[in-house]
Specification:
heterodimer; A: alpha+beta; five-stranded antiparallel sheet; about 30% helix; B: alpha/beta; TIM Barrel; seven-stranded parallel sheet; globular
């Protein structure tokens, strides 16, 4: 049996981080979540990371370029996190350098209260 | 507030251009490319080309604030002295001091740390904790740095490139140097030391990181803007200085009277407490814009 949905007052409040992700290899939406969790747990530890409540909402490939004979995949991602933990999450993500020996760089380019407004403001290439 | 990154690692034109474009995209306002003294003469020749390429970038290709007056990042070039002993440092300084606007020296070795802190012709001691278990600083070096106005540089790249206990060691060194900075008030600057596209981080991410390890807003402001600007301004006047504290003023340019001696640059004035409380529970998206409009906004993305 499915659990009944919580009333709005009991639900957790979220913010949405808009991320600019650069990677050497292709990343799927499913790959992004463990990358973010690993970064948070490595920097903040298991205890503090338990407040973050991360989830990848959207994941778009923006461009694919080649520099010095190496491909660079540029993605924009909408990442959900707890409302009081935005700064902690962005710190942890900015300290990520490699994932499975592939270079990766994650920058937070904006914070939004809803997915829709985040996409409208920061991911104008995507028509939704 | 503007963000000065005084240490981008220069290599060749193509790589430097990619690096500068990326840093400009993420909101940096002043970029200083550092080269070894052997490569400096070659690099200074393509500086104008870099500036031209950068000025061709459209505002919409960046993550800067929409409502801000859009300006491209300024570019300068300097020298980073690597792996040299005290004698070699002295020779390099004698040769390049008049050519380069920025000279830093990589620390790590205790003798180098000491000789750099005692040399007023060097602007920055870079990474005194390099390959050390301790911070490489003590009260003696701190006093010398204050006396000779040598800034100490902390690099974000050391955080990126080290992991687990090594990263913890670097953070511990940062905190110890911060402790000395609070007591002795030597200039402390924060840089990224970016070498590739993957090292570039947005200004606000780096501010958040340094806040998370215990820097106050005042120290971050001074580290990113006040002290770097002081170094840039001082070095632009260096040609006219006879000795420290005395400079030649051209007769046509004698507007620099006693009234104008105060610099327009001011050290950080902290928020009043009410505004800090307001920031704690920011309700996006409306209040976030208010935060951006505040006196000390650290973000460029809005």
């Amino acid at each position: 049996m499915k659990l009944k949905v919580l009333p709005p007052t009991l639900r957790k409040n979220h913010h949405y981080l808009i991320l600019d992700v650069k990677s050497e290899v292709e990343l799927s939406k499913e790959d992004m979540l463990p990358i973010c969790w690993d970064g948070c747990i490595r920097y903040w530890g298991e205890n503090h990371s338990s407040n973050f409540d991360l989830w990848v909402m959207r994941h778009y490939l923006v461009s694919e370029t080649i520099q010095n004979n190496e491909p660079i995949f540029n993605y924009k991602t909408v990442l959900r996190c707890g409302r009081s933990c935005c700064d902690d999450v962005r710190v942890a993500l900015s300290t990520l350098k490699r994932q499975n020996r592939n270079k990766i760089a994650i920058n937070t380019i904006g914070i939004s209260g809803t997915v829709k407004s985040g996409i409208n403001k920061f991911i104008d290439e995507i028509d939704e | 507030m503007k963000f000065y990154d005084m240490n981008l690692r220069g290599q060749d034109f193509d790589k430097d251009l990619a690096l500068v474009l990326e840093a400009n995209r993420f909101g940096w306002d002043y970029l200083n490319l550092n080269y070894s003294h052997d490569d400096f003469d070659e690099a200074i020749q393509y500086k104008d080309d870099l500036i031209d390429e950068l000025s061709a970038v459209d505002f919409y290709q960046t993550y800067r604030k929409m409502n801000a007056n859009f300006e491209h990042a300024d570019i300068s070039m300097g020298i980073n002295i690597l792996n040299a002993n005290s004698n070699e440092i002295r020779k390099i300084i004698n040769k390049y001091r008049n050519k380069a606007k920025y000279i830093s020296c990589l620390g790590g070795d205790l003798k180098i740390n000491r000789s750099v802190c005692e040399n007023h012709r060097i602007d920055v001691l870079s990474r005194p904790y390099y390959k050390r278990r301790d911070s490489g600083m003590n009260h003696v070096l701190a006093k010398e740095a204050v006396k000779n106005n040598v800034a100490i540089e902390l690099c974000f790249r050391d955080i990126l490139n080290n992991h687990l206990r090594y990263r913890a060691n670097v953070i511990s060194s940062f905190k110890e140097i911060l402790m000395f900075h609070r007591k002795f008030k030597f200039p402390l600057i924060i840089t990224t030391d970016s070498k590739s596209l993957y090292d570039v981080r947005s200004t606000r991410d780096i501010v958040s990181f340094f806040k998370s390890i215990g820097f106050t807003e005042k120290e971050i402001y001074n580290g990113f803007y006040y002290y770097p600007k002081q170094i840039v301004d001082f070095n632009s006047e260096r040609d006219n200085m006879i000795i420290n504290g005395v400079k030649v003023i051209e007769s046509d340019d004698f507007t620099d009277t006693y009234d104008n001696l105060e610099s327009d640059l001011e050290e950080f004035e902290p928020f009043d407490e009410e505004s800090i409380d307001d920031l704690d529970d920011v309700d996006l998206d409306e209040d976030y814009e208010d935060y951006e409009d505040n006196e000390f906004d650290f973000g460029e993305e809005e």
